[in-house]
Amino acid sequence: MNESESREIIFGDFNLSLGLFREILKNYGLKSATTKFSFDEARRFSDELILVKDVEQVHKLIKANPSGAVSFYEFAHEVEDRHNFEKLDFISQSDGRHEPFLLLASATRNLMDVREEELREEQEAE
Questions:
Q1: Burial of 4 (0-12, 13-18, 19+ CB in 10 A)
Q2: How many CA atoms within 13 Å lie on the side-chain side of 74?
Q3: What span, in angstroms and rounded, lies between the C-alpha atoms of 99 and 109?
């Protein structure tokens, strides 16, 4: 298997986690339009999601921080979009030994870091 094929398999794992996360959000009736978007809340949610070991814990995390969950989802969805349309890659190689949402959380965290840098550069250019 070449590196490109390996990256697509990893991205497939990312998409599975993202799809599951999206369905869980839908079950709680959470949508982007109903929740204010926040970098800080998304980052805090991501930090906690990395440690989650099962779907039941994800439910608890979303109940405890619904706005963080939706903010996080917005970034995660952007990872998917940038991968599909811009061919940008925020997903690190995995050794296969991780918590179920680690790949989703870490790739999204990588994007958040890039977005913050892009915003800083835009502000400095003004």
A1: exposed
A2: 21
A3: 15
**CB 58, CB 52: distance < 8 Å:** yes
The token pair that represents 40 in the structure block: 């800080």
How far apart are the C-alpha atoms of 119 and 101, rounded to whole Å? 27
Tens of pLDDT, residues 4-22: 777 777 778 888 889 999 9
- Of 26, 94, 16, 100, which is closest to residue 58 (Cα–Cα)? 100
Reported as a single tens digit per residue, the pLDDT across 82-125 is: 877 776 666 655 545 556 687 888 888 888 888 889 889 999 99
